[in-house]
Each structure stands twice: as C-alpha cells, then as structure tokens.
# Entry
Amino acid sequence: ETGVTQTPRHLVMGMTNKKSLKCEQHLGHNAMYWYKQSAKKPLELMFVYSLEERVENNSVPSRFSPECPNSSHLFLHLHTLQPEDSALYLCASSQDGTNYGYTFGSGTRLTVV
Amino acid sequence: GENVEQHPSTLSVQEGDSAVIKCTYSDSASNYFPWYKQELGKGPQLIIDIRSNVGEKKDQRIAVTLNKTAKHFSLHITETQPEDSAVYFCAPIREGGTSYGKLTFGQGTILTVHP
# Structure
C-alpha cells in the first residue's frame, strides 16, 4: 500500500448508470488529483484539489464530477459515460500542491459497456 | 504548456545489461525532473528525481542525468533484473507559482528485462 487507497479496483458500468470512484489518502497531504490513463496515451491530469478547493479542471466533460469533502477524501462521480471513457483512473496526493511526496493509488479500472 | 517526449517507447534488454531512457521537454523554466515506475496493476511510483541545480543523481542501480541546456534528462538502470520490467514515465515540471503539482507525463517506456 502506498498510503493512497482507491476503491473499487475494478468497475463495469452501463452508459446510463451512475457510479462513484473513491480515493482516500493517509499521508497527511493537502492536495489531491485525478488522472486518466488510457491505452497508448500519456497520463492525463483531470482535476486538482488544493486545500479542498478545485484549482484545476482540464476541460473534462461534465459527465465526470469531482468532489473533495475534506483533505483526505476525493470522489469522482460518473454518469452517462461513453465507451471511450473506459480507462484506468488514478488518484494521487501531495503536500502543498508541490511534487514533494507525490503518491499515486493503484487506480480503478473502469469499463463502460 | 510542457511538451514531453520519451524515447524509446519500448526497450528490451537481457538481465544484467544496462538500460537508458531519455526524456525531452520544451519548457526551459522546468526545474524538477522525476522518473516514475509503473508495475502491472499499480499506480506510478516515484523512483528517482533531480532538481535543476544538480547534473546527476544516483541511487544504487538507478541514476538520473540532466542536461538543462539541451532540455533533456535520462534514466539509467545498471545491472538490470527481471523485476525492473515495468513502464517508466518522466514528468518534468516547473515547481512553484501556479503549478499546483500538475505533472505532465511522457508517453511512457515499456522496459522488458529477459532472464
């Protein structure tokens, strides 16, 4: 375990479903991130939360909705997804929005059918 | 924004050989240069990093070298072992200001070490 825990590890959902991905960090960090990792593409930064405020939204479609209720928890709410949204979704955390102690979780493998 | 390129995209070596992966970046203001290793079923993990005031850093079998003038840095793995097989990513960044830890990753290099 890296100190960043993601659940579930695997998720299959239909295009009309609503689901949520959860991330929890036990490192005392105050910045958290969502990344998308698709086959044959670089890791893409989706959202950044610093001190529980969203400071970055990289032109992500509105069918992805993040939530950060406190500095230890981060959610990604999913609805009306498309098959091309199938990917590995990675959560990460760091201290003070820097690269110090930047730590990733193991990811959620999402398949949209 | 930062443009990052890694070469090669795949690398196959025999156990005990050395492996070198190169990362080229575009932002001359970048000052932090990490390498991440991603094993199957796991997220990327930081294995070594270097800052712009240093030209080389070594940690046992791995090392990173930086050429700021040419805007590239490289990962060196010596005496490779099968457990080094993974995908390696570089993610150069300019720390401070509004960077908020927003890493821009290279496309990755798949390293395979054959026993």
Observations:
- Chain B touches chain A at residues 4, 32, 34, 36, 41-46, 49, 89, 93, 95, 99-108 (CB under 8 Å).
- Chain B has a mean pLDDT of 92.
- Chain B is about 0% helix and 50% strand.
